[in-house]
Design goal:
By secondary structure, the chain is an alpha/beta fold. It has 2 domains: 203 residues, Periplasmic binding protein-like II (D-Maltodextrin-Binding Protein, domain 2); 94 residues, Periplasmic binding protein-like II (D-Maltodextrin-Binding Protein, domain 2, 3-Layer(aba) Sandwich). It is 51% helix and 16% strand. The strands form 2 sheets. Strands 2-1-3-10-4 form a 5-stranded mixed beta sheet. Strands 7-6-8-5-9 form a 5-stranded mixed beta sheet, sandwiched between helices. Helix 6 links the parallel strand 6 and strand 7. Helix 2 packs across helix 11. It is globular, with a radius of gyration of 21 Å. It starts with a helix and ends with a helix.
C-alpha cells in the first residue's frame, strides 16, 4: 500500500510538473487577416472560442490589415507568422520570389456575391460602375474584372475605390457612395435585408472550382521545429477541427460568429452558415485540393491577373494537413 501511494504521489507530482511546463511553454503565432471579421475565418474563430489552441500550447495574436497584398507583405516582412489571403495575389508573390507556401485554408471555396444599387440589374450594367474594393490588386478588384470579361464587357472602364472590409464595402453601396462591390454571402444577405439592392452574380456559380483563400506561412517557419509544431496545432484546431465543428454544430458556430460581429442579427448569421454548409465550403480535410489550385492558376492567367507559369506544387505544402488528417481520419 505504501509503495502504491508513493508511486501515485510520484506520478501526480510528475503530472503537475508536466502540466505546469505545458502551461508555460506557449508558442506565439501572429495571424494577420486581410479583412474585418467575416465567415471566411470562422474555423479560426471557433478554435479560439473553444480554447483548443491555448490548450495545445499555442498563443494567438490577431492583426487585421486592408486587403490581400497587405496581408502578404506583413508575412514576408516578418510582421506575422500566418497570413490569410485570397488566391490570386499569392501566385504573383511566389513568382516574384516570396519564400512562402499555403499550408491550409480557412475557406477553400468562394462564396462571394456581386451586389449593386438597384438600378444595376445585370453584369453588363457594371461596365462604368464605381466599385468598392478591399484594396487595389486584391480579389475584390480582380474578380469583378474577370466577371465583366466573361460577359464580353470592357472591364477597364470600372473605377475601383479602396474601402476596406466587407462591412465597409457594403455600407459604401447602401449609402449610394459607390455603385457596386463584392462581399461574402453573409454581407450580401445583410444588404438585401437593409435595402433594395441587386445581387448581380454568385462567383461560385460563375467560376465553379475557383479557389478562394489560403493560409500562408514562410518556408523558414516550416523549417523551425518549434514553430512547425505550433503550425500543425493551428492546422488541426483552427482549420480541420474548426471546420468540422461548423458542419456538425451550425447553431453554436453562428453564436461564435456573432461575438465577432455583434452588430449583425443572429438569424442572418444562422441562415448564412446553413447556406455555406450546404455549399460545402469548409476545409474539413484541410482545404488544399491541388486541382482547385491548378484550376485557379489557369483562371488567373486567362484573365491576365497572373502572367507567369506555376503549378500547385509551387504553392501548396500539404505536409501538415496530411499529418493532421492522418491522425483524425478523413471526413
Amino acid at each position: 500500500m505504501t509503495l502504491r501511494i508513493c508511486l501515485w504521489a510520484v506520478a501526480a507530482a510528475l503530472g503537475l510538473s508536466l502540466s505546469a511546463q505545458s502551461a508555460g511553454a506557449q508558442t506565439k503565432l501572429k495571424v494577420v487577416f486581410p479583412t474585418t471579421p467575416t465567415t471566411m475565418a470562422l474555423p479560426h474563430y471557433v478554435a479560439i472560442e473553444k480554447g483548443w489552441l491555448k490548450n495545445a500550447g499555442v498563443e494567438i495574436e490577431e492583426v487585421t490589415v486592408q486587403g490581400d497584398p497587405n496581408a502578404i507583405r506583413a508575412l514576408i516582412s516578418g510582421q506575422a507568422d500566418i497570413a490569410g489571403s485570397g488566391t490570386f495575389p499569392v501566385y504573383g508573390a511566389i513568382a516574384n520570389g516570396a519564400q512562402m507556401k499555403a499550408i491550409a485554408s480557412w475557406q477553400p471555396i468562394a462564396d462571394y456575391q456581386v451586389v449593386a444599387q438597384s438600378q444595376f440589374k445585370t453584369v453588363k450594367d457594371l461596365e462604368n460602375a464605381r466599385v468598392a474594393a478591399a484594396s487595389i490588386g486584391s480579389l475584390t478588384t480582380v474578380i469583378p474584372q474577370m466577371l465583366l470579361k466573361k460577359y464580353g464587357v470592357d472591364p477597364t472602364k470600372m473605377k475601383f475605390t479602396s474601402i476596406g472590409g466587407h462591412e465597409a464595402r457594403l455600407q459604401a453601396v447602401l449609402a449610394n457612395k459607390l455603385d457596386a462591390t463584392i462581399v461574402s454571402n453573409l454581407y450580401a444577405s445583410i444588404g438585401k435585408r437593409k435595402a433594395d439592392i441587386s445581387v448581380i452574380a454568385s462567383i461560385a456559380r460563375e467560376f465553379p472550382g475557383m479557389g478562394y483563400s489560403y493560409i500562408l506561412v514562410k518556408d523558414s517557419a516550416m523549417a523551425d521545429a518549434t514553430t512547425r509544431r505550433a503550425l500543425e496545432a493551428y492546422v488541426q484546431y483552427a482549420i480541420v477541427e474548426g471546420a468540422r465543428f461548423i458542419v456538425k454544430n451550425p447553431a453554436e458556430a453562428a453564436r461564435i460568429m456573432a461575438k465577432r460581429t455583434p452588430d449583425l442579427e443572429l438569424a442572418v448569421i444562422e441562415d448564412t452558415i446553413r447556406a455555406l454548409n450546404e455549399d460545402k465550403v469548409w476545409p474539413i480535410n484541410g482545404g488544399l485540393d491541388p486541382e482547385i489550385t491548378d484550376f485557379t492558376i489557369g483562371l488567373a492567367k486567362e484573365t491576365g491577373a497572373f502572367k507567369g507559369e506555376m503549378k500547385a506544387s509551387q504553392v501548396l505544402d500539404a505536409s501538415l494537413v496530411d499529418s493532421v488528417v492522418g491522425k483524425l481520419g478523413k471526413m
